[in-house]
Structures are given as structure tokens and as C-alpha cells.
Amino acid sequence: MMSYIARRLLILPVILFGVSLLVFSMLMLIGPYKRLSTYIKSPAELKTANLDTLVDKYGLNDPFYVQYSRWIKGVLQGDFGWSETAGQPVSKAILSRFPATLELALLALIPVIMGGINLGVFSAVHHNDPWDHITRVFSIVGWSIPTFVFGLVVLMIFYGVLGWFPPGRLSVWAEDIIRSGEFIQYTHLNVIDGLLNGNLRVVGDALRHLIAPVISISILWWAYILRITRSSMLETLRKDYIRTARSKGVKEKLVIKKHARKNALIPVVTVAGFMVLGLLGGLVITETIFGYQGLGKFFASAASQLDYAAVLGLALYFGFLLIIINLCVDVSYAIIDPRIRLE
Amino acid sequence: MEWQEVLLKLIKNKISLFGIGIIIFFVIISISAPWLAPPADPDDPYMIPRAGWSIQPKPPSEDHIFGTSEGQYDIFYGIIWGARTAFRVGLIVVGISTLIGILIGTIAGFYGGVIDEILMRITDVFLSMPFLVAAIVLTTILGKGLDNVMIALVTFGWMGTARLMRSQVLEIKAEEFIQAAEALGANDIRIIMKHVILNTIFPVVINASMRMGSIVITASSLSFLGVGAPTGYADWGQMISFSRNWILGSQGNALQFWYTVLIPGLAITFFCLSWNLVGDAFRDILDPKLQN
Q1: What is the pLDDT of residues B94-103, one digit of tens each?
Q2: What is the mean pLDDT of residues B85-104?
Q3: Residue numbers in A near B125 (CB within 8 A)
Q4: Which residues on B lie below 8 Å from A10 (Cβ)?
């Protein structure tokens, strides 16, 4: 297992370098004058100096590798340029919006994983009977509805008609509470901060705003995890050791729970990385629909306003995040799967 | 399994037959678009005609059977020509990206060694960005327009096929008939074209059919976010973005503008559903582990 993990760690810098090169190549597709925004420290610079001087100052007509090495030095120091959309440096804008997105993503993972796995096992156990067909139809329909259609319908019904789940991240009064001096923001995750401060009203309000985006984002991945779990469970149920357990007289419930489910879940872990990839994409849509002030909404509005500095900074940030998550997934996979662990 | 046998099973399976039916329905709509919704300007049929300049959508009526969207774009016209857009984007993007994937996967798997290592690390790099995010970045940089959307989707859409093809090639390379061909002195290109690709292509084709749905969803997501198709272009994603400001209806009548989101929403959902149903049935038929 150590050699597997060591290999992964050795590749890591190569991938990081590759991603930075990819993002920089996209940046170079933009003309030098438009590219300026990704270099300047504040918009005041654009007013004081002539554009040509600035292009010269940042060396935007230099050869590719010279510009790349200069750019990457800045990036490593956390300098991604000035975001017009946010009205602040890109790195600052990203850091201040990250907790909101993290909170949404973490909350979405719970129903996705729990619901998807349980439904998948359920469907496999009832292989080919009506329950199986119902869950499969549900899964394939869920997989086919675009997030932006489903999200808008959820908004229409749960906010427009029923008035239950308002858009945004917090109500105004709750916003006032968390900004007041008495409320300490330990993590900037409103639900957890609310609990730590013992303020259940804030917790309730935060959850109320989170439910609709969580529903919209999870349906797709629910369907996906269900599908993977089902086929892996079906395969496991045909294995010899399951037959052995059954013929020993072990109760069916125990066979499923103790023998089959654990082993069937190993392939589900491998797709977790792919799922996080899709979740990050889905967040862009969901946050935009529900006016939830996180990284996804920031990214979408930056893209539609051609705020290159923010778009590229976020792309790099998302890429970096994904590489780290994938590394964790691979390592945990190696720990879970005895075939790799004992190698 | 021979492809005739697979096709027969696809038609016998009720679920996939339903999927094939929907696909045929959309094909008919796209072909007969000029008759179903005659364009005002035959040179530019993809621009949706406007029935006025008022902002508020109007409900279905005799003149506009599906109603009009924000800015008085005719929803029926947009749905009909949007089907063509969906097929065009889906087929072109899936086609080209699959070809690129086959090429890279085959070279990596067949030659192995350093070439394999380099190609697969490049694949890893491209996979390190969420598909939707990467597509948005490239479209933003290249500028609005359907051609640029397609370029972006192809650029970041070939990696899955490449990985699949590589593992297929690795499997078949060990087979005796490849060694026999090598021993007989066949050159690499002949072996790849004649023996390797022909014997590995099937799962790749299935994978391609299953990607149609997700590619069309991603393309329309870009239009929905306002970085894809130009304003007024017949594209389902954009028609849904027209509904965003009206989603909450008016005081006391929350569902007043239901048609602006539900009609294009159903069109795109059924389009993707049909491809997914066929792909799903494909997978069941070909997965020997699921056979009883």
C-alpha cells in the first residue's frame, strides 16, 4: 500500500504543474490588454497609468515561459489579480465565500451518500421485482433532469407556492445576529457556529435556506450512487462467499448487512472523486438559482461579466481542491480495500 | 455478442424501446422544423422570432400555442428549432471528442511505456477541473456563441473515452491474434486499425450514446448561465434562463408563468432521458456480470 500512496504523492506535483500550465494557456488566449485585470493589484492602477505602460510593466508581451514563471510566482503567493465582480482581490473574494460553499457541499453529501447507498442496496436485494423497477426508473429520471430545471421547479414550488424555503443564505435578522459582537464566528459555517454559540434560531434559519439547494443538487447524485451501488451489490450477491454464508444458515438480513454490503461499497468509493467533480459543477448552477452567496455563484457571475481574473483564479482553485480531494479518495480507497492494503 | 443481436435485444426491451421512440420523435421534429415552425428569415432560422417587445411573458394562445417567454420570444418556435440545436451540439461534440479519446487511448494503450505515461498524465490534468467549470472558463475566454461552446466541450470531453479505450486496448493486446499479426509482420497501423480498434470499439460506442444526454445538459447549462448561445438563439437552456425572473409568478399566483420553465424543461429532460434509457439498456445487455 505504501508504494501505491507514494506513487500518488510523486505524481501530485506533476499534475499540479500541468493544471497551472493549462489554466495559464487559457489565460494567454486573451489579448494583453484584456489580460491586465489578472495582474493588477487594484483598479486605481488602471486610472493612474497609461495601459501601454502597464502592459510593459507586467511584461505581457514577453515570451510564454517568461510570463508563466512570473505568473506562477504570483499565484504561489496567493496573488490572482483584481476581481471586478467582487470589487476586491480574487484571493480575498475566494476565501470569504469558501465557507458558504463548503457548508452547502457537506450538507449535500449526507443525503447523497446515505440515500443513494441505501436505495441501491434495496434495489439490488429486490432484483427484478416491482420495487427494483420503481427505484431504477426514479434513478434514471433523476439522472436526466438538468440541475437548472429541477432547481427552478423546486424554487417555484417550495418558495413561490409554499413559502417554506427562501433563497439566499440567511434572513436579514439572522444576518444581523451573526454580525453582532456577541456571536463568535468560529468556522464561518452558519449551522455549526449557531450550535457553538447556542443560538438555535440561527441554526434553524441557516438550515431553512440550505434545504432547497441541497435537494436540487443531490437528486442527480442520488441517482448516480444508487446506480453504482445497485450493480456492485448485484455482483457481490452472486459471489461464492455469499452462497457459503447463506448455506451455513446465516439470516438473510445479516448476509446483506455484514457480508455483502461492505464489499459492495468498495467500488462506490472509487466514484466518489467523480461525484465531487460533478458536485462542484452543480454548485455553480444551484448557487446561482438560489442566490446563495458562495463560490459557485461568484464563478457564474464572474463568467457572465467576463471577469477573467476571477474566472481563472477560481478555475485554478477548483482544480487544486479537486486534486486534493481525489488524493484523499485514492488513499482512503487503498485503506478500505484489503486487496490493495495488503499488497 | 454481435451487434445485430444487441440491436434486437434493444428493441425487445420495453424501456429502451421507449427511449428509441423518444429519440425518433425528436429526429422527426428536427427534420420537419421548417414546416412545423416556418422561419421568418430562412437564412437565419435559429433566431427565435419576437412577437413584440414587452418584457412580461404571455400565456399560451392561438397564435403562440406554448406562449411567449420574457421578451416575447415564441416558446413553440424555440422548442422546435432547439431540438436541432440539441442534436447538433450533442452529435458534433460527442463525435469529435470520442474520436480524440479513441486516438489518445489507443496510442497510450498500444505503445505503453513513456508515451502511455505522458498521455495519461495529460489526461489526469484535464480531468482535474470540473467539466462544467472548465467549459465555462474556455467559453468565457473564446466568447459567446455555439461554436465556442462546442470547442470548449470537446476540449474537456475526451478524457473518459481515452481512459476507457486504453484499458480496452491493454486487455486485447495480450490476446494471441494480435501477437500472431505481429509475428506475420503486419505494421502497427494495420494492427491498430484492423485488429485492435475493431475489437474494442463497442463499449466506446455505448459510452458515447450515454454521453449525449450529459453533453446536451452541459451545453444548455452554459446558455442558462448566459455564457453559451447568443441571446435569442433557439436553445433550450437559454429559453429556461428567460424564465428565471418569472419563476416566482406574481402576488397570489405563484404559478402564473409555469409555461416559461416547464415546457422547455420537459423538452430537455425528455431528450436526455431518451439517450439515458437506451444507454442503460445497452449496459445491461452487455454487462455479462448482470446476466442470470
Answers
A1: 999 999 999 9
A2: 94
A3: 15, 18-19, 21-22
A4: none
> d(Cα B267, Cα A286) in Å, to the nearest integer?
20
Q: Chain B: residue nearest A311 by CA?
A: B137
A303 touches chain B (CB under 8 A): yes
Span B190-241, pLDDT tens digits: 877 777 777 777 788 888 888 898 899 999 999 999 888 888 888 999 999 8
DSSP B68: B
Using H for helix, E for strand and C for coil, what is the string for chain A? CHHHHHHHHHHHHHHHHHHHHHHHHHHHCCCHHHHHHHCCCCCHHHHHCCHHHHHHHCCCCCCHHHHHHHHHHHHHCCCCCEECCCCEEHHHHHHHHHHHHHHHHHHHHHHHHHHHHHHHHHHHHCCCCHHHHHHHHHHHHHHHCCHHHHHHHHHHHHHHHCCCCCCCCCCHHHHHHHHCCCCCCCCCCHHHHHHHCCCHHHHHHHHHHHHHHHHHHHHHHHHHHHHHHHHHHHHHHCCHHHHHHHHCCCCHHHHHHHHHHHHHCHHHHHCHHHHHHHHHHHHHHHHHHCCCCCHHHHHHHHHHCCCHHHHHHHHHHHHHHHHHHHHHHHHHHHHHCHHHHCC
Q: Does B125 touch chain A if contact means CB atoms closer than 8 Å? A: yes
**pLDDT mean over A2-20:** 85
Q: What is the mean pLDDT of chain A?
A: 83
Distance from CA of A126 to the nearest CA of B (A): 14
pLDDT digits (tens, 9 = 90+) for B162-174: 998 998 888 888 7
What integer pLDDT is reported at residue A9 of this predicted model? 85
Query: Residue type for B126, please?
Result: F
Q: Between A144, A149, A312, which is nearest B240 by CB? A: A149
Domain segments of chain B: what residues?
3-291
Distance of CA A155 to the CA centre of its chain: 21
Q: Is B209 on the interface with A (CB under 8 A)?
A: no
Cα A260 off chain centre by? 30
pLDDT, mean of residues A255-260:
80
Q: In sequence order, which residues have a C-beta less than 8 Å from that of residue A3 and are 6 or more positions away?
A: A343
CATH code that applies to domain A91-303: 1.10.3720.10
The residue behind cell 424555440 is B78
Boundaries of every domain in chain A: 1-84+305-343, 91-303
Q: Is B254 on the interface with A (CB under 8 A)?
A: yes
**Greater pLDDT, B247 or B275:** B275
Query: Is A94's Cβ below 8 Å from some Cβ in B?
Result: no
Distance from CA of A209 to the nearest CA of B (A): 16
pLDDT of residue A342: 64
- Which amino acid belongs to residue A216? S
Q: Does A28 touch chain B (CB under 8 A)?
A: no
Looking only at Cα atoms, what is the longest distance across chain B?
A: 80
Q: Which whole number is the average pLDDT over A334-343? A: 71
CATH topology of domain B3-291: MetI-like fold (1.10.3720)
